[in-house]
Amino acid sequence: MAAGQKLKTLRNGRNITVREVEQASRRIADAKGDRRFCISNGWLAQLENSASEPNIQKFFSLSVIYRVNFLDLLRLYDVDVDEKQEYEPVADPYLTQLIPHKPNVGELFTSTEQLETILIANGKVNSNPTPHIVYGQLGLTDFTMYPMIRPGALLRIDTSQNKLMSGIWHNEYERPIFFIELRGAYACGWCELQGNQLLIIPHHSSRASVRRFTYPREAEIVGRVVGYDTGCVDLKPQD
User: Fold this and answer.
1) Where are the beta strands (DSSP E) in 110-175?
2) CATH class label, 86-229
3) Strand partners, 224
4) Are 116 and 130 a contacting pair, CB within 8 Å?
């Protein structure tokens, strides 16, 4: 059913005529002192016939008159504000950021992930066996861990491992990689703590520089990167 027809169904469900909608909206417009909230019967007829598009003010009036949630009216037109975070990585893929959903199976190739999938399929565990696991995406301009982790990689982050600990590693793959929140931004890299200074250290083959932040005022550890899906070749040549 088209969005306009759904609106008409809502109006009919309230037993309200097009003329009554106009009169009610005029009262709302007068109360707000803004004529944009007024709905003419001609405009409403066009909207219900899908011959015109809604605007915010008139939609507000309709939500009041029909006694429905404003956001539910938006969903009739395939606008769901709950999807905002889901589309932020799409809108700006150049920034490193957390993603609000679990990637599809196969996007992160880790033995733990594969084991979880098998256990869930066989009803051995609930659908959220690892609530401490979140996901991130490396920005397309983030070369901090290049070429070990290439820009655009999907990251699997264990938030239970959010403390820096001194230790010995035998190679770069054993050295812990962390996902860091930077007050409005995110970063991914090796980390060292020098006093109250958190150092984000790039891969030795990367052109990126060491970055320093006051810890924990300017930077906090989200968790340790325990898996990532990265290409073996660059999508674009490195500038």
Assistant:
1) 133-137, 154-158
2) mainly beta
3) 158, 178
4) yes
Region of 184 (left: φ > 0; alpha: ψ -120 to 50; beta: rest) is left
Q: Is 1 exposed, middle or buried (0-12, 13-18, 19+ CB in 10 A)?
A: exposed
Overall pTM > 0.85: no
Backbone angles phi, psi at 16, to 5 degrees: -115, 130
* pLDDT tens digits, 72-113: 988 888 888 887 777 777 777 888 999 876 665 444 444 444
Contact 198, 213 (CB under 8 A): yes
43: tokens are: 């405009």
Mean residue pLDDT across the chain: 84
Q: Which amino acid is at 101?
A: H
Strand 178-181 and strand 133-137: the pairing is: unpaired
Neighbours of 109 (CB within 10 A): 13
Please state which of the ranges 38-52, 54-68, 107-121 shows the lowest mean pLDDT. Answer: 107-121
The Cα 111–Cα 107 span in angstroms is 12
Helices 41-48 and 18-32 pack at an angle, to 10 degrees, of: 120
Each as own residue / partner, the long-range contacts of residues 19-23 (CB below 8 Å, 24 or more positions apart, any chain) are 21/62, 21/65
| Per-domain residue ranges of the chain | 3-79, 86-229
Q: pLDDT tens digit string along 60-72?
A: 999 999 999 999 9
Integer Cα distance of 35 and 217 in angstroms = 48
Q: How many residues does the chain have?
A: 239
**Architecture of domain 3-79 in CATH?**
Orthogonal Bundle (1.10)
Helix segments in the chain, DSSP class H: 3-13, 18-32, 41-48, 56-66, 70-76, 84-91, 111-121
79: amino acid identity, one letter: V
